[in-house]
């Protein structure tokens, strides 16, 4: 089962807000429902957001909606993930040429899944038998639709018989690592342990981490990467301890219109995500919070970017633009 699919005009999604305690399917009947699913993180992860938006456009087309309005409804959901805008532009251009929107959306979804499989093949070569790999947030099948991005090399290495161990950052404040990545590792049978976000440096310094692999929500032309909040500090500590730090992402995540990470818009979400854990308040009444959802990791801390067409140094990103 994929994280998101299109069935009889309905966009169906695994409700990631409910995992791992409950497995429920969220059904989006209108583009407004699709927008809600993206904004409220029923679905999350840049590639999966893009696939969901593509299906939302197809749904609007089937319902004979004004496609410019549908485009705007979906565009204004989350500002950081570039795959959202990549998918919407793909759909708008295809529809304007007279294409069947449902076929276009399915084509887009299949292409992203295939690209992530190739990311797995390219990244698996970097993983040695016995490696202990640190992840941050969830860049697995739930975030993409099948293989995942950061988890694709991990899955591929495991299926090829390599003995690996995964450190799963909990990833506050929404705990995507503890709730989602750990769930995926468990489903796959991959040995892992959940750690508090601020424990990663401890295990790095103790020699317990051989490499770090994370996903990405947007990559600028100079190789700077926006990813879930906390990624930047993991990259800095990995660099300090001489640990390779890799980013896994399809080409759809690259935004060649931006010269650096300073130009990437960073979403700031509700302070309640920090002040509460689900319905339980964990902070004093009257205390306020700040909640940036992403940060930017400068290219100098990144060993390589794993894509569907190969592994590139951040300094080589311009080559991808030409390709």
Task: Write out key terms for the chains shown.
323 residues; alpha/beta; Four Helix Bundle (Hemerythrin (Met), subunit A); seven-stranded mixed beta sheet; three-stranded antiparallel beta sheet; 12 helices; globular
Topology (elements, then pairings):
Elements: E1 4-7, E2 10-14, E3 25-28, H1 31-39, H2 46-62, H3 67-75, H4 82-96, H5 101-124, E4 132-135, H6 141-144, H7 151-159, E5 165-169, H8 176-188, E6 192-195, H9 200-205, E7 211-214, E8 218-219, E9 225-228, H10 231-240, E10 245-248, H11 272-275, E11 276-277, E12 280-281, E13 294-297, E14 304-307, E15 310-312, H12 317-322
Parallel strand pairs: 4-5, 4-7, 5-6, 7-10, 10-14
Antiparallel strand pairs: 1-2, 2-3, 8-9, 9-13, 11-12, 14-15
- Work out the helix count: 12
Largest sheet: 7 strands, mixed
CATH superfamily of the largest domain: Translation initiation factor eif-2b, domain 2
CATH architecture of the largest domain: 3-Layer(aba) Sandwich
By helix and strand content, what is the structural category? alpha/beta
Gist of the model:
By secondary structure, this protein is of the alpha/beta class. It has helices spanning 31-39, 46-62, 67-75, 82-96, 101-124, 141-144, 151-159, 176-188, 200-205, 231-240, 272-275, 317-322, and strands at 4-7, 10-14, 25-28, 132-135, 165-169, 192-195, 211-214, 218-219, 225-228, 245-248, 276-277, 280-281, 294-297, 304-307, 310-312. Helix 1 packs antiparallel against helix 2 (46-62), helix 2 packs antiparallel against helix 3 (67-75) and helix 2 (46-62) packs parallel to helix 4 (82-96).
